[in-house]
């Protein structure tokens, strides 16, 4: 599946959440995540991720396996992503190790997600040691839909970036 996404930094997240509620956006997720990131072989741009999700709305836990390949990073980051649910975390680790994918890091976060006009708006708060500042991520079905949501939520384009979290951390001097 192709995804188009941006991160939104240095905006009043509570004000945007209130605006989403006033626009009757649907809250679709609130969860705690344990994310295990693995590098792709051959230095490809992207990663493999195992995610353990604690769903705080439905009180369930699930595990997903995902591969994300990044292919465009101008105005919005564009990825090819394949994700599916799995039943056994340890078997996922063994499977990746058998493929020669074994370097990983774990990073945890809290995520709250809304849908407005077919666009996913997510609020991420990482463990402070991973990234100290909460931010938004907007995932839209098209560039036009992304631009529409930015207008509706009154988010200036100078507050968005197509950079990944690692690049943002480098720019901020955090690594």
TrEMBL record:
Residues 6-33 form a coiled coil. The keyword Transport does not apply. CDD domains: CYTH-like_AC_IV-like. Keywords: Coiled coil. PROSITE patterns: CYTH. Pfam families: CYTH. Residues 1-171 form the CYTH domain. It comes from the Bacteria. Transmembrane segments: none annotated. This is Adenylate cyclase, class 2. It comes from Caloramator proteoclasticus DSM 10124. The lineage of its organism: Bacteria, Bacillati, Bacillota, Clostridia, Eubacteriales.
């Amino acid at each position: 599946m192709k995804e188009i996404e941006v991160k939104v930094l240095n905006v009043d997240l509570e004000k945007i959440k209130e605006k989403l509620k006033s626009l009757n956006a649907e809250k679709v997720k609130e969860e705690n995540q344990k994310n295990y990131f693995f590098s792709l072989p051959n230095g490809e741009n992207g990663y493999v991720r195992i995610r353990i999700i604690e769903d705080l709305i439905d009180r369930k836990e699930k595990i997903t396996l995902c591969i994300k390949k990044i292919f465009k990073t101008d105005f919005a980051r564009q990825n090819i992503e394949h994700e599916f649910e799995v039943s056994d975390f340890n078997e996922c680790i063994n499977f990746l190790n058998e493929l020669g994918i074994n370097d990983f890091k774990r990073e945890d976060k809290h995520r709250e997600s809304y849908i407005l006009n077919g666009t996913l708006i997510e609020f991420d708060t990482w463990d402070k040691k991973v990234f100290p500042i909460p931010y938004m991520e907007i995932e839209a079905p098209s560039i036009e839909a992304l631009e529409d949501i930015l207008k509706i939520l009154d988010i200036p384009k100078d507050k968005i970036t197509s950079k990944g979290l690692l690049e943002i951390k480098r720019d901020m001097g955090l690594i």
